[in-house]
Design brief:
120 residues; mainly alpha
């Protein structure tokens, strides 16, 4: 289910990015200076989506402290993207939501495939 979640979030993020022309903070805010110019659209954050997809997938069924570590990792990635000025907070929030929806969709697909295999 891990790989399926990653594939689904990747397809969603890179399908949305070209259609949602949201410039990066460096292009809109005068006090944001990026070390390296980034030309792709800002919304949604692919890095945050990937980090939260990993957190949702690998923390499923784990102890609370393991979940806290995975989601702490994802939250740090999201914070870092905003701190560096390459994303707005809404970008990383959307990335996390896409990851959650991808995880749920992957779970439904996996359950459906397992059910079909059991009934055949």
């Amino acid at each position: 289910m891990f790989a399926l979640t990653i594939v689904i979030q990747f397809v969603i993020v890179y399908t949305l990015k070209p259609f949602l022309h949201v410039p990066r903070p460096g292009a809109q805010l005068a006090d944001v200076h990026l070390l390296v110019p980034i030309f792709r659209n800002s919304f949604p954050s692919a890095d945050s989506a990937m980090a939260f997809s990993i957190a949702f997938s690998l923390s499923s069924g784990e102890k609370i402290w393991v979940r806290a570590l995975w989601f702490g990792y994802a939250a740090l990635i999201a914070y870092e993207r905003v701190y560096l000025g390459v994303h707005f907070p809404l970008d990383v929030t959307a990335g996390a939501l896409i990851a959650w929806l991808s995880y749920l969709l992957a779970g439904r697909i996996a359950a459906s495939l397992a059910w079909k295999m059991n009934t055949s």
